[in-house]
Specification:
By secondary structure, the protein is an alpha+beta fold. It folds into two domains: 3-143, Immunoglobulin-like (Sandwich); 159-209. The protein is 31% helix and 28% strand. It contains two helices and twelve strands. The strands form three sheets. Strands 2, 5, 6, 7, 10, 11 and 12 form a seven-stranded mixed beta sheet that branches. Strands 3-9-8 form a three-stranded antiparallel beta sheet, with no helix packed on it. It is elongated and about 100 Å long. The chain starts with a helix and ends with a helix.
Length: 209
């Protein structure tokens, strides 16, 4: 079965169930994820429904490039009838189903992520008679390897000028906070020393009586 036929059937089903659906289905996905260039990306998406999953449960993943609109979206993967159908475009050989309907997990994985994959991915779930009125959007940000990874002892990481300015600003803010803490600490110590002097003087006066 061609993907175009599957998608058309899914849209017809969505139109019908939108009339009678209860809209009790809720979809959950992160607003943004960051993935290193050349690695595999997991796009997580789950849902909650008052209805049990069945053969009619369908999922449509779409991609919208940065600056684009939903009208120009690309189908990344269609899941229906218990079978995943990769899209016909550049994701066809790279996308795999990573979900489990029994756990209401409809996530996907995309291999060999590159900078052209930056954009918005939408997760749309149909579980009749429950229908999700709005798909969830995930903003995918692709970065060079190592930039967003924690640095281990003895390792080096390359940063650009903008990141360096931000780091320098953070260091300066931390320095000011430490200086302020130090000044407050010395003020407290000086006050404590003065109180001790006054107490010592009072005790000495009592001893001289």
């Amino acid at each position: 079965m061609r993907l175009g036929t599957v998608v058309s059937a899914a849209f017809l089903f969505l139109l019908i169930t939108n009339v009678h659906g209860s809209f009790a289905l809720e979809v959950y996905a992160p607003e943004e994820i960051t993935v290193e260039n050349g690695t595999q990306a997991l796009l997580p998406c789950t849902f909650k429904s008052s209805e049990v999953t069945r053969k009619e449960t369908s999922v449509i993943w779409r991609y919208i490039e940065d600056g684009g609109s939903s009208k120009g979206s690309t189908t990344v993967l269609m899941f229906t009838g218990g079978i995943p159908y990769p899209g016909e475009g550049r994701f066809k050989e790279r996308v795999t189903w990573a979900g489990d309907l029994n756990k209401k997990d409809v996530s996907i994985k995309i291999d060999k992520i590159n900078f052209k994959d930056n954009g918005t991915y939408t997760c749309d779930v149909l579980n009749p008679p429950d229908v999700n009125d709005l798909p969830k959007e995930i903003k995918l940000r692709v970065v060079e390897k190592g930039l967003d990874n924690p640095v281990q002892d003895g390792e080096y990481v390359t940063i650009d000028k903008q990141q360096a300015r931000g780091l320098l600003n953070d260091i300066e803010n931390m320095y000011e906070k430490v200086e302020g803490f130090k000044n407050n600490m010395w003020a407290s110590i000086s006050q404590y020393q003065e109180e001790l002097k006054q107490l010592k003087a009072k005790v000495s006066k009592v001893l001289q009586m």
